[in-house]
């Protein structure tokens, strides 16, 4: 889907300098610090009173550099829409409930974007383990061992009422059986999944 | 560029991710123990007034509020 972007970008830049060969660059991980001098010269010949146009990459901040050796700690930023639960906390490991299963994140993890499913997220710092039940969200793991985890709701397990969970599970299982339209089925399915996850979290 | 990736069941039923995520969050909030449940519900209250415009004049506003009408 983004394959066209590099072609369109390089096409607009090379319009004024047709003899220049453009390296086909998709999303570069390094922002070039040198501006293309051939282009600037050709531009000045054609339009000496106007500044050469900026390209999107000149507005980009360079990516934070990846350390050459794997850091010993993972920096976690865990945010909710209404609060910043953990901000720049250095930990040993986090286990996140990704849609592909429980994912353990250690420092030096390969850069990943993971969608989260309802489940337990645990933050391990030495012998301390802090668990949250996450309703859904995303986890962005960066190359420099920074993990940004965003969730809509995240509660400590002690705040969940087991009897409500059982009631909800029974209610949604019944709704799933009696659902007619696709949308009703989907909503009931979501209810069953979330309540089963909470149930498993409380008993596991 | 047709992609044949399997879509999640909620997207197949016409729901967007935001709707799905909000439903999950509401379900979790409903299962909280008492002081936390009341806090989270009061935090998520919405109150807005929407009015359509016709001929340069606002029509009757639609009021959406979780607070009782006083």
TrEMBL record, chain A:
Keywords for this protein: ATP synthesis, CF(1), Hydrogen ion transport, Ion transport, Membrane, Mitochondrion, Mitochondrion inner membrane, Transit peptide, Transport
GO molecular function (one): proton-transporting ATP synthase activity, rotational mechanism
Major subcellular location class: mitochondrion
Domain of life, source organism: Eukaryota
GO cellular component, one term: proton-transporting ATP synthase complex
Entry function: Mitochondrial membrane ATP synthase (F(1)F(0) ATP synthase or Complex V) produces ATP from ADP in the presence of a proton gradient across the membrane which is generated by electron transport complexes of the respiratory chain. F-type ATPases consist of two structural domains, F(1) - containing the extramembraneous catalytic core, and F(0) - containing the membrane proton channel, linked together by a central stalk and a peripheral stalk. During catalysis, ATP turnover in the catalytic domain of F(1) is coupled via a rotary mechanism of the central stalk subunits to proton translocation.
Entry-linked NCBIfam families: ATP_synt_epsi
Subunit structure: F-type ATPases have 2 components, CF(1) - the catalytic core - and CF(0) - the membrane proton channel. CF(1) has five subunits: alpha(3), beta(3), gamma(1), delta(1), epsilon(1). CF(0) has three main subunits: a, b and c.
Protein name: ATP synthase subunit delta', mitochondrial
Gene: LOC108834486
UniProtKB/TrEMBL annotation, chain B:
Database matches in Gene3D superfamilies: ATP synthase, F1 complex, epsilon subunit superfamily, mitochondrial (1.10.1620.20)
Superkingdom of the source species: Eukaryota
GO CC term (a single one): mitochondrial inner membrane
InterPro entries referenced in this protein's UniProt entry, alphabetically: ATP_synth_F1_esu_mt, ATP_synth_F1_esu_sf_mt
GO molecular function terms noted in the UniProt entry: proton-transporting ATP synthase activity, rotational mechanism
Main location group: mitochondrion
Family listed: Belongs to the eukaryotic ATPase epsilon family.
Entry annotated with the keyword 4Fe-4S: no
Keyword Transmembrane (UniProt): no
Highest classification ranks of the organism: Eukaryota, Viridiplantae, Streptophyta, Embryophyta, Tracheophyta
Function: Mitochondrial membrane ATP synthase (F(1)F(0) ATP synthase or Complex V) produces ATP from ADP in the presence of a proton gradient across the membrane which is generated by electron transport complexes of the respiratory chain. F-type ATPases consist of two structural domains, F(1) - containing the extramembraneous catalytic core, and F(0) - containing the membrane proton channel, linked together by a central stalk and a peripheral stalk. During catalysis, ATP synthesis in the catalytic domain of F(1) is coupled via a rotary mechanism of the central stalk subunits to proton translocation.
Subunit structure: F-type ATPases have 2 components, CF(1) - the catalytic core - and CF(0) - the membrane proton channel. CF(1) has five subunits: alpha(3), beta(3), gamma(1), delta(1), epsilon(1). CF(0) has three main subunits: a, b and c.
Compartment(s) of residence: Mitochondrion inner membrane
PANTHER family: ATP SYNTHASE EPSILON CHAIN, MITOCHONDRIAL, ATP SYNTHASE SUBUNIT EPSILON, MITOCHONDRIAL
GO biological process: proton motive force-driven mitochondrial ATP synthesis
Protein's UniProt name: ATP synthase subunit epsilon, mitochondrial
UniProt keyword list: ATP synthesis, CF(1), Hydrogen ion transport, Ion transport, Membrane, Mitochondrion, Mitochondrion inner membrane, Transport
């Amino acid at each position: 889907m983004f394959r066209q972007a590099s072609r369109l970008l390089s096409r607009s830049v090379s319009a004024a300098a047709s003899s220049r060969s453009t390296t086909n660059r998709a999303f570069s991980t390094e922002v070039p610090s040198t501006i293309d001098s051939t282009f600037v010269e050709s531009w000045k010949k054609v339009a000496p009173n106007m500044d050469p146009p900026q390209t999107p990459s000149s507005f980009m901040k360079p990516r934070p550099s990846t350390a050459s050796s794997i850091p010993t700690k993972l920096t976690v930023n865990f945010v909710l829409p209404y609060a910043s639960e953990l901000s720049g906390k250095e930990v040993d490991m986090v286990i996140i409930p990704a849609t592909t299963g429980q994912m353990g994140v250690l420092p030096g993890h390969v850069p990943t974007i993971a969608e989260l499913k309802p489940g337990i997220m645990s933050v391990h710092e030495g012998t301390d383990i802090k668990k949250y039940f996450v309703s859904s969200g995303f986890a962005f793991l960066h190359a420099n061992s920074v993990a940004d985890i965003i969730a809509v709701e995240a509660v400590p397990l002690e705040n969940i009422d087991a009897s409500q969970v059982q009631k909800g599970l029974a209610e949604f299982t019944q709704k799933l059986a009696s659902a007619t339209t696709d949308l009703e089925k989907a909503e009931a399915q979501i209810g069953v999944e979330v309540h089963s996850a909470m149930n498993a979290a409380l008993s596991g | 560029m047709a992609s044949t990736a399997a879509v999640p069941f909620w997207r197949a039923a016409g729901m967007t991710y935001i709707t799905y995520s909000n439903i999950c969050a509401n379900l979790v909030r409903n299962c909280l123990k008492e002081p936390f449940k009341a806090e989270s519900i009061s935090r998520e209250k919405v109150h807005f007034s929407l009015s359509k415009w016709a001929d340069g004049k606002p029509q009757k506003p639609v009021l959406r509020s979780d607070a009782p009408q006083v």
